[in-house]
Structures are given as structure tokens and as C-alpha cells.
Amino acid sequence: MQIIKVADDGTITINLSPTEIREIVADLDAADWNSLSPSARALYHYLDMVRPPAATSRAAIFPGGGF
Fold this sequence. Notes:
Number of helices: 2
Low-confidence stretches: 56-62
Helix content: 25-40%
Shape: globular
Mean pLDDT: 76
Strand content: 5-15%
Strand order of the largest sheet: 1-2
Largest sheet: 2 strands, antiparallel
């Protein structure tokens, strides 16, 4: 869920979920890099730096049994 807040001093805060971060990075990664504005490139680098690692297929597997 995207939450955008603008403070009285003009500072903008954007809260993104981990899924949204991954989607934005994937979209920017697929775009023509030469057509991106400097702001879009900076956003890409920042989000790529802070995005959570992608879940692996084994991360959610629980061996079960034994209880």
C-alpha cells in the first residue's frame, strides 16, 4: 500500500511495501535506460539498494511432522 505524506516544509515521505518496491525496480529495470530521467535513475538505484531480497521457493517450506 502506497502512503504519501507531504510535511509543512515540503518534505515528501513515500511508504512502499516490499512487493511494491520489487515491482517498481522491475519496471524501471525493463525500461529503456536512456529514456529515464535522472530522477527515475536515482529512484531506481535507491530502491534497488533498499529492496528486500526476493523470497526463494524454499523459504516457506516447512518440513512438518514430529509434533
